[in-house]
Amino acid sequence: MGPALGFSAKPDVQDTLVHWQRWMRSERNVSPHTLSAYVNDVAEFLRFLTEYRGGSPPSMNDLAGMKAGEFRAWLSRLAMDGLVGASRARKLAAVRNLFRWMDRDGRLHNPAIATLNTPKVLRPVPRPLTEIDTDRFLDEAEQDREEPWIGKRDRALFTLLYGCGLRISEALGLARKDAPLGESLRVTGKGRKERMIPVLPAVTEAVQAYLDTCPFTLAPDGPLFVGVRGGRLNAGIAQHQMQKLRGLMGLPDSATPHALRHSFATHLLADGGDLRAIQDLLGHASLSTTQRYTDVESEQLMNVYRSAHPRARKS
């Protein structure tokens, strides 16, 4: 059934939320962590509406008739409760997800939510995405597309950047015959240097889903990722797609395709990955370059560096 909502709701809303969660799990294939976060955010939103309307839980008709001012009152309450812009933006993204699904499923149409501005996120220093933001970003990448195959293409591309730590040029330079459908991927990076990268099942599944829906016949030596006319996908298009998604989710301007490569390194190192192994996976000639690709506590980084560097081990 999915995560419990933890509050009372009108029967028609309860039924809708059950089907929405089922859709998120089966068709969007979101991670349990992402699903739980979305459900909790929606539950908080509906609890606010219950209080805002004098203690009566909202019905589907109430949700359909909501005005922009009611949505703004909810966002204002979040701000009064001390939530920063990034947190408010994530909660708004979850509620938007529900309303988009209800609209596509023919359950209700509410144009007011589309008029809301995403809360601004001010982060002066570029940073990799958090693990939670990365999960939600990859889930959102596949949604809200007039052409479903384009959403699957974008998810496959971004999952590849994050799951294998590729540069955008490396991913877009792959040929169809090089599609990462096995356990490893051979990549030619800067300076024509080749490296082997293990491929996660999540990457394989995302790429296969894109290939299954791509309307073009991809020649073995032709590009793996193609645009709407069948030619090689341009990096500018991928960057524009990510720009739209980060705006929708309230992510900072530093959330670029290259930030997914940074996130790959950061999350590996934070989870105990070996610094030299990460260096090899990224294709860096220098260990100091790999350090700049990570965003972990300096003390932890130095501990990992001391254990990895041969000179440090001799001291």
Automatic annotation (TrEMBL):
What is the protein's given name?
Tyrosine recombinase XerC
**GO-annotated biological processes:** cell division; chromosome segregation; DNA transposition
What does the function comment of this entry state? Answer: Site-specific tyrosine recombinase, which acts by catalyzing the cutting and rejoining of the recombining DNA molecules. The XerC-XerD complex is essential to convert dimers of the bacterial chromosome into monomers to permit their segregation at cell division. It also contributes to the segregational stability of plasmids.
Keyword Glycoprotein assigned: no
Keyword Transmembrane, does the record have it?
no
One Pfam family it belongs to: Phage_integrase
Outline the extent of the Core-binding (CB) domain.
Answer: 11-103
Name the keywords, alphabetized: Cell cycle, Cell division, Chromosome partition, Cytoplasm, DNA integration, DNA recombination, DNA-binding
The entry assigns this protein to a family as follows:
Belongs to the 'phage' integrase family. XerC subfamily.
InterPro entries noted in UniProt: CB (IPR044068), DNA_brk_join_enz (IPR011010), Integrase-like_cat_sf (IPR013762), Integrase_catalytic (IPR002104), Integrase_recombinase_N (IPR010998), Integrase_SAM-like_N (IPR004107), Tyrosine_recombinase_XerC/XerD (IPR023009), Tyrosine_recombinase_XerCD (IPR050090)
Query: Where is this protein found?
Result: Cytoplasm
How would you summarize the oligomeric state and partners of this protein? Answer: Forms a cyclic heterotetrameric complex composed of two molecules of XerC and two molecules of XerD.
Q: Where is the Tyr recombinase domain?
A: 124-306
According to the UniProt record, one GO cellular component term is: cytoplasm
Q: Which residues form the active site?
A: R167, K190, H258, R261, H284, Y293
- Give the Gene Ontology MF terms in alphabetical order: DNA binding; tyrosine-based site-specific recombinase activity
